[in-house]
TrEMBL record, chain A:
<feature type="transmembrane region" description="Helical">
    <location>
        <begin position="245"/>
        <end position="267"/>
    </location>
</feature>
<dbReference type="GO" id="GO:0055085">
    <property type="term" value="P:transmembrane transport"/>
</dbReference>
<keyword id="KW-0812">Transmembrane</keyword>
<feature type="transmembrane region" description="Helical">
    <location>
        <begin position="197"/>
        <end position="225"/>
    </location>
</feature>
<dbReference type="InterPro" id="IPR035906">
    <property type="entry name" value="MetI-like_sf"/>
</dbReference>
<dbReference type="Pfam" id="PF00528">
    <property type="entry name" value="BPD_transp_1"/>
</dbReference>
<feature type="transmembrane region" description="Helical">
    <location>
        <begin position="99"/>
        <end position="121"/>
    </location>
</feature>
<feature type="transmembrane region" description="Helical">
    <location>
        <begin position="68"/>
        <end position="87"/>
    </location>
</feature>
<protein>
    <submittedName>
        <fullName>ABC-type spermidine/putrescine transport system permease subunit I</fullName>
    </submittedName>
</protein>
From TrEMBL, chain B:
<protein>
    <submittedName>
        <fullName>Secreted protein</fullName>
    </submittedName>
</protein>
<keyword id="KW-0732">Signal</keyword>
<keyword id="KW-0813">Transport</keyword>
<dbReference type="GO" id="GO:0015846">
    <property type="term" value="P:polyamine transport"/>
</dbReference>
<dbReference type="GO" id="GO:0042597">
    <property type="term" value="C:periplasmic space"/>
</dbReference>
<dbReference type="InterPro" id="IPR006059">
    <property type="entry name" value="SBP"/>
</dbReference>
<dbReference type="InterPro" id="IPR006311">
    <property type="entry name" value="TAT_signal"/>
</dbReference>
<dbReference type="Pfam" id="PF13416">
    <property type="entry name" value="SBP_bac_8"/>
</dbReference>
<dbReference type="InterPro" id="IPR001188">
    <property type="entry name" value="Sperm_putr-bd"/>
</dbReference>
Length: 283, 386
């Protein structure tokens, strides 16, 4: 078999999967977004921009998603970076594997069950009752944006920790020695050597978390008490409650468009930040 | 498959099902959105693994039957008995709203054999050609004369019988009387006014357009089912004004009521009964202005893959003796006089389950128009995203 034919053959399963599971469904969504809602729900073929013109009706959902997703990503990064740094650089190698496993362990339980646990931790009998003991009465945590952020950070932290850990772990220690030999205090070595070299991990982690957060619906529904409404929640309602497939498709297309735009801007920013080095290829 | 593994997986399934039954999941619960519905579907999907098993009854109806229903709505022991008698395992899919059931059937390929729609949705299913008429010859245990017409009638559309009455109930609200300061709470007007006053941050409403909008309409004395734009605008204003004072918009209100994060919530009969039994200070109220009365049905979707098993299951559940066990397990009222004759009097005299006639008379059945009215759906969406 000629090498080229063999390559195509090996690519065929992935290509077919990509085509049938990703490209074609997206085309369907795009087509539906120009249609109309059937009298009892569903989809009726049409060509109208009505659904797109109606997008402002979901402005709050977009606003909530576009604020809480980046904020959640940033907070997850701020918490994950020191943790990953500790695991990769400072932790005793004897314990490292054990500690890494501890980061993964929560993933063994469904996020649904873990979110339910947070309902009780943040609910009136949880942290607020402890705060009441020290005199802070009537603190409301559950069903607030704060609760949603807490759930988001808790749920997505491992996805941020691992890429950063990998990039820090591969870091060539000799570079740090050289930096020290050339007279850099530790903070400066960190800023000029460690941090730039870990940017690929940071970028990958942020991307993973941000993209997943943009489509999140479970955590806002459970910890936001239905009052913190994400685009994901709007989509669930449009398809499962009001069965407005056309409008739901338009919202989905808008979400994908916003995501493509933010992610490409973000990648350009990261590339520039890391001086477009070869080893910073993100994809 | 060996006998042994058959036995173990069966046990495991029943254990899981009981957990679901005992847990805090409630009727019309937020299942779909939270993903519990998916979890339950997965749970149900373990069922085919238990089988195949030889059928004992005359005639082979296949090895399984798929039932789409609500949480806490059956006696698991009855399903075991059905499987033992017929060889068909009951695969249960649990749902959180009628809208979701309709969405699933509209999308096609649901794989359901029997499902449990509520009165107001049946005409929509008939119009959309999604259900098939019931052949009563195949349900010998169904006796139309035994059913209270008020609850059984919505099963007949254009003279054809499409659905058989399962249970009925009401939608009111539950209130924790520890926090009312002795004030008697008995109207929707009080429900909304208290929410925006002393109960601020303590009230829950359903994540369900029919009841949340319907009970806001009752504040103004409008019909629970109104689709009049002006009346809906009034209801929307009330909902938006009340929203900052709500504890949550969620149909899973039992956990929050139980741990006193919430003091008041829109509430279905069965949940009201369960809450009141465990915590007597939680009272169930039917708003004086009215509200919803509902009845649920067994129906067969078009293209049911196991039609024989579907009829066998419905007939089995219509057997008065079996239905009695169902009622004792879930506690919802039955419209079948043959079953009621067998139920203990304290259940039949319970004021939560069987409200006084004057309260009942003000209640309305949900109207088909509310299910498909795009304005109500959009109003709910605006309320949730406000």
């Amino acid at each position: 078999m000629r090498p080229q034919a063999r390559n195509w053959l090996l690519l065929a399963p992935a290509g077919a999967w990509f085509l049938f599971m990703l490209v074609l469904p997206l085309v369907v969504v795009l087509v539906f977004s120009f249609g109309e809602r059937g009298p009892a729900g569903g989809y009726v073929p049409a060509f109208t921009l009505e659904q797109y013109l109606n997008l402002p009706a979901r402005w709050t959902a977009f606003k909530n998603t576009l604020t809480l997703a980046p904020v959640g990503t940033m907070l997850a990064l701020l918490i994950a970076y020191p943790l990953a740094y500790f695991l990769a650089v400072r932790a005793n190698p004897k314990w490292r594997m054990m500690l890494l496993i501890l980061v993964i362990v929560p993933f063994w339980t469904s996020i649904l069950i873990r979110s339910y646990a947070w309902i009780f931790i943040l609910g009136g009998r949880g942290i607020p009752s402890l705060l009441a003991m020290v005199g802070l009465e009537n603190v409301r945590l559950i069903n607030t944006p704060f609760a949603v952020l807490t759930g988001i950070i808790y749920g997505y932290l491992p996805l941020m920790v691992f890429p950063i850990y990998v990039s820090l772990e591969r870091l060539d220690k000799r570079l740090l020695e050289a930096s020290a030999d050339l007279g850099s205090p530790p903070w400066r070595s960190f800023m000029q050597v460690t941090l730039p070299l870990s940017i690929p991990g940071v970028a990958t982690g942020c991307m993973l978390v941000f993209i997943l957060l943009m489509g999140e619906f479970l955590i806002p529904a459970m910890l936001g008490g239905g009052k913190v409404f994400f685009v994901g929640n709007a989509l669930v309602d449009l398809f499962l409650q009001s069965r407005n497939w056309a409008y739901g498709s338009a919202v989905a297309v808008a979400l994908v468009a916003i995501m493509l735009l933010t992610v490409s801007l973000y990648m350009r920013f990261v590339r520039r930040f890391s001086d477009a080095r070869d080893d910073v290829s993100l994809m | 498959m060996s006998r042994k593994s058959d036995f173990i997986s069966r046990e495991k399934f029943m254990q899981e099902l009981r957990r679901l039954e005992k847990g805090s999941v409630t009727r019309r619960h937020f299942l779909g959105v939270t993903g519990l519905g998916a979890a339950a579907a997965v749970l149900g999907a373990t069922m085919p693994g238990l089988m195949p098993r030889r059928a004992f009854a005359a005639g082979d109806i296949g090895d399984r039957v798929v039932l789409a229903t609500w949480p806490n709505y059956h006696d698991p022991a009855n399903f075991e008995a059905f499987t033992a008698a017929t060889g068909a395992a009951v695969q249960v899919n649990v749902f959180g709203s009628n809208e979701e059931m309709l969405a699933k059937l509209q999308a096609g390929g649901s794989g359901w054999d029997v499902f449990v729609p509520t009165n107001y949705t049946i005409t929509t299913y008939v119009d959309a050609d999604l259900i098939v008429p019931i052949d009563t010859a195949r349900v010998p245990n169904y006796d139309p004369a035994a059913f209270e017409a008020r609850f059984a009638a919505p099963g007949t559309v254009d003279g054809k019988l499409y659905a058989l009455s399962k249970n009925w109930g009401t939608t009111g609200f539950c209130v924790n009387s520890k926090h009312t300061g002795g004030v008697k709470v008995e109207t929707w007007k009080q429900f909304w006014n208290m929410t925006m006053d002393g109960f601020s941050g303590r009230t829950m409403v359903h994540d369900y357009q029919l009841t949340t909008i319907g009970n806001a309409l009752k504040y103004f004395g409008y019909s629970f089912n109104s689709i009049d734009p002006k009346e809906l605008a009034d209801a929307e204003k009330l909902l938006i004004d009340a929203k900052p004072h709500l504890f949550a918009i969620n149909s899973d209100y039992q956990p929050s009521m139980r741990n006193e994060d919430a003091w008041m919530s829109m509430c279905w009969t069965g949940d009201g009964k369960q809450l009141h039994t465990d915590l007597p200070e939680i009272e169930f109220v039917i708003g004086r202005e009215g509200g919803e009365i509902w009845s649920d049905f067994y129906a067969i979707p078009k293209g049911a893959p196991h039609l024989d098993a579907a009829y066998a299951l419905i007939d089995f559940l219509m057997t008065p003796d079996i239905n009695k066990k169902e009622a004792l397990a879930h506690g919802y009222p039955v419209a079948d006089s043959r079953v009621n004759a067998m139920l203990p009097p304290e259940l039949l005299n319970d004021p939560i389950l069987y409200p006084a006639a004057d309260l009942l008379s003000s209640l309305e059945f949900g109207a088909a128009a509310t299910l498909t009215d795009p304005n109500r759906a959009e109003l709910m969406a605006r309320f949730k995203s406000a």
